[in-house]
Predict the structure of Quinol monooxygenase.
Amino acid sequence: MDRCGILVLLEAKPGKEQEVADLLTSAKQLVLQEPDTLKWFAFQTGPATFGIFDTFADEDGRQAHATGEVAKALFAKAEELFASAPQLHMADLLATK
C-alpha cells in the first residue's frame, strides 16, 4: 500500500531542457532495480519545468530511494543542468487509487 511519497521539482537551465528530459527518461532503469519504490513518475509541466513523484509503502523505502542511484544522478548533474537546486518535498499520502 502506498503510504508515503516524494515530490521533486526541477527547473532546467536554458538550453538544457532536452538533457534533463533524457536524464529523467534514463533514470527509469535505475528505479526498476528498487523493489521498495512502488510507483515512479517523471514528468514535464512546462518548457523547462520537470518533476518526479514516487510512492513507497513505508519510510524505509522512501529513505532508500532518497539516498539511491536516481538521487545521486540528479545531484551529480544539478549544477550543470538545473537553474536551482532540486526541490524535494516529502509527502504523506492521505488517499490513493
User: Anything to note?
Assistant: The first strand starts at residue 4 and ends at 11.
